[in-house]
């Protein structure tokens, strides 16, 4: 990204020139405050259009908010900050604790005074009969201990063995239950989430071909018997105006020029005005017609006259800045003075006259003009070439030598502006003949199938030689040198459908039966699966 500074005095042509001379694709224009661009949406639109034509993306930054807003109206991205968000009102938060009302507070105090304290329960430390029950409990424990000690040793051993066997049965049952659960869960995982991967490797056959191909806009299909391809012609035109500084200096005496509108409100008859016909401003300054014009007749309808008009160029009668004046709502024709036509014919000057100057001025030398034309021509070619190649339809191939760029117009305006710059206007047209890559590959597959049935290309390298294009007739011929690799054409979808849900042995047998197979491997997850998933989406085929 490049940042270009735009001063207050930089004109639109100067800005466009800076953009075009930049080597970067993304440019930020930093425009100073109070630039002449402020409020001029058309100027920004012109800059944006020229930048996009040159394949560049521009954005605008400026300390002047009005400039940023004008740029945004023209569709150019700016650094304009968004409006500050409104602050949240603290009144949105509501407390969970509310103060007691005056009446509630008095009521609570009255209830507190009238309430009586709860009576305490008196607990005696020694209750009657406690010693009797304690004594009975001790005698019962003593009798039980005596009975256990009296029990014979063989009986105790028998009971312990019985308890051990019962515990072993419970443990065994628990282990079996866990095993059944684990096996069931494993089976369910394999049935619902099992996956398979089939890795295939086939014998590779090298293929070489060399031949002449013809592509024409008159062919509609691929003809494998004649090596013919359909072709299309693409055309694009481009024009541009570039500004250049003039290096020469000379003493000049220039007259101001302007564009005027001449009106006929006199009659329906047209009126011829010869070259040098005078038009006078309200303060008496004279401008003369550059060329003869014919003012069309007014339109008369229902007795009312609708004026007609024609645009023409005029030049000041004298040189100098005194004639850089205007605009004017009415210019009279002194030659008609004293006649009815004086009020029936008049002119208007919508824009001020400009160019009047006496003194030393920058002029374009022959070398300046020659260099400027060369740069403009190269810019047209680069813009057309890069713009078309990047924006052409997908799948089309344009070979080197199958396109041309013609410069149709290249004119230099030697008149310099107030900054000492002159301009060059150029027009160019781009033409190319192209074919589709898929059509060429289809042709090669058809040629290869003559010797290798049922095989397709896994690798294809093409060199183009002796390219000849006739853009007028739409015919392209070239020589191809092709090196490729052929493998059996196996449908992945058909293979998946054939082995889905099959046992591992049956699936292996079907895979081994594939033609020209050099190596294959089937992997299952989880490892205990004995069948491939029935869902083809859970089978993956890897080509090696």
Produce a short descriptive summary:
With 544 residues, the chain is of the alpha+beta class. It is built from 11 helices and 26 strands.
Which terms would index this structure?
4-stranded parallel beta sheet; 544 residues; 11 helices; 7-stranded antiparallel beta sheet; 35% strand; alpha+beta
Provide a descriptive summary of the structure in words.
The two termini are 43 Å apart. Among the domains are: 2-78, no CATH class; 153-193; 233-246 and 363-432, no CATH class; 250-361, Elongation Factor Tu (Ef-tu), domain 3 (Beta Barrel). The radius of gyration is 49 Å and the shape is elongated. The chain is α+β, with helices and mostly antiparallel strands and 544 residues long. Helix 1 packs parallel to helix 2. It is built from eleven helices and 26 strands. Strands 9, 11, 12, 16, 17, 18 and 19 form a seven-stranded antiparallel sheet that branches. Strands 1-2-3-4 form a four-stranded parallel sheet, covered by helices on one side. Strands 7-6-24-23 form a four-stranded mixed sheet, covered by helices on one side.
């Amino acid at each position: 990204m490049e940042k270009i500074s735009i001063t207050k005095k930089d004109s639109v042509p100067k800005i466009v020139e800076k953009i075009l001379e930049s080597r970067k694709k993304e440019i930020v224009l930093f425009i100073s405050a109070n630039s002449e661009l402020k409020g001029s949406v058309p100027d920004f639109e012109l800059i944006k259009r020229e930048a996009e034509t040159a394949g560049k993306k521009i954005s605008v930054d400026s300390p002047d908010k009005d400039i940023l807003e004008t740029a945004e109206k023209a569709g150019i991205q700016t650094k304009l900050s968004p409006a500050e968000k409104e602050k949240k009102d603290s009144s949105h938060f509501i407390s969970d604790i509310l103060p007691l009302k005056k009446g509630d507070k008095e009521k609570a105090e009255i209830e507190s005074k009238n309430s009586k304290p709860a009576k305490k329960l008196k607990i005696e430390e020694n209750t009657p009969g406690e010693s009797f029950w304690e004594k009975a409990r001790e005698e019962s424990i003593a009798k039980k201990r005596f009975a256990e000690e009296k029990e014979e040793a063989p009986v105790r051993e028998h009971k312990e063995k019985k308890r051990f066997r019962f515990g072993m049965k419970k443990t065994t049952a628990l282990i079996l239950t866990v095993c059944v659960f684990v096996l069931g869960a494993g089976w369910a995982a394999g049935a619902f989430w099992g996956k398979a991967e089939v890795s295939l490797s086939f014998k590779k056959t090298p293929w070489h071909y060399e031949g002449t191909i013809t592509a024409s806009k008159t062919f509609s299909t691929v003809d494998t018997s004649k090596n013919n391809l359909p072709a299309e012609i693409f055309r694009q035109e481009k024009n541009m105006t570039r500004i250049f500084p003039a290096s020469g200096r000379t003493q000049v005496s220039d007259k101001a020029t302007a564009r005027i509108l001449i009106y006929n409100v006199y009659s329906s008859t047209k009126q011829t005005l010869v070259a040098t016909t005078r038009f006078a401003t309200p303060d008496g300054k004279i401008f003369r017609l550059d060329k003869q014009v014919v003012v069309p007749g007014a339109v008369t309808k229902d007795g009312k006259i609708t004026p007609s008009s024609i645009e023409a160029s005029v030049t000041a009668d004298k040189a100098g800045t005194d004639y850089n004046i205007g605009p004017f709502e009415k210019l009279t024709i002194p030659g008609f003075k004293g006649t009815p036509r004086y009020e029936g014919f008049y002119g208007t000057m919508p824009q001020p006259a400009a160019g009047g100057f006496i003194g030393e001025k920058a002029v374009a030398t022959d070398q300046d003009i020659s260099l400027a034309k060369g740069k403009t021509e190269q810019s047209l070619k680069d813009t057309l070439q890069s713009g078309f190649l990047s924006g052409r339809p997908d799948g089309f191939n344009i070979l080197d030598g199958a396109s041309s760029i013609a410069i149709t117009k290249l004119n230099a305006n030697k008149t310099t502006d107030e900054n000492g710059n002159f301009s060059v206007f150029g027009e160019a047209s781009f033409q190319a003949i192209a074919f589709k890559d898929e059509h060429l590959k289809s042709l090669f597959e058809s040629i290869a199938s003559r010797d290798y049935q049922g095989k397709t290309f896994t690798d294809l390298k093409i060199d183009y030689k002796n390219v000849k294009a006739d853009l007028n007739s739409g015919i392209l011929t070239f020589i191809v040198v092709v090196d490729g690799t052929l493998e059996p054409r196996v449908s992945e979808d058909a293979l998946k459908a054939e082995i889905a849900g099959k046992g591992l042995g049956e699936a292996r047998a079907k895979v081994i039966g594939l033609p020209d197979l050099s190596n294959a491997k089937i992997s299952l997850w989880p490892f205990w699966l004995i069948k491939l998933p029935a869902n083809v989406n859970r089978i993956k085929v890897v080509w090696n």
